[in-house]
Amino acid sequence: MPLTLWLSLAAVCAMGAMSPGPSLAMVLRHTLGGGRTPGVVAGLSHALGVGLYALLTVWGLGAVVSQEPVLFRIITWGGAAYLAWLGIKALQAGRGGALEAQAAVTDPLQAARDGVLVALGNPKLILFFVALLSQFVSPDMSIAGKALIVATAALIDGLWYVLVAVALSHSAVLPWLQARAHWINRLTGVLLLALALRVLIG
Fold first, then answer.
1. Residue 72: is it exposed, middle or buried by C-beta count within 10 angstroms (0-12/13-18/19+)?
2. Cα 28–chain centre separation
3. How much is the CA Rg of the chain, to the nearest whole Å?
């Protein structure tokens, strides 16, 4: 793949990763609730889900999924239900008051599960990859070229959310966030419920 084409691919993947949504809310929640390690694990596991969708796209299965109304509806409803569940959990945590600095209300295993499920339960990723990532795939592309596309999508997503988790868990940032966790959890919960509703209606 030419360098200029790869740079365009990297820019597209970066824009997709940096756009606000349930993934950012999920990484924030785990960083706030457990510190740097759960936040980083959530970001890396989310990247695995992104890598899977990228792999499906280069194999041509992403287009099949997007054109099958029943399969797409199942993914949509499942993703919306999971986002709503995360939102309710965040609202319940918000009523519990601010988090203490040592309070580990989440752990790496929970973070890994949520990271993958938020990625796989987001039907927008299918449309994103089919509409944009598939433009970089040609019928005669080599296996190495396809592998480069998958690796680029997963690595950029993972690096972005690891950076977010590390920045949020910095000693000067995390205490400030934890002192306001009551309101951050409420805001995150409302955002996740709104996103779940948006997925269902649109």
1. middle
2. 11
3. 17
Amino acid (one-letter) located at 184: I
Dihedral, 125, 38, 89, 172 alpha carbons, nearest 10: -110
Q: Are 45 and 115 in contact (CB under 8 A)?
A: yes
Query: Cβ neighbours of residue 59 under 8 Å, at least 6 residues apart?
Result: 146
- Residues 159, 157: Cα–Cα separation, whole Å: 6
Looking at the whole model, is its pTM more than 0.70?
no
pLDDT tens, position by position, 157-185: 999 999 888 887 776 766 676 677 677 77
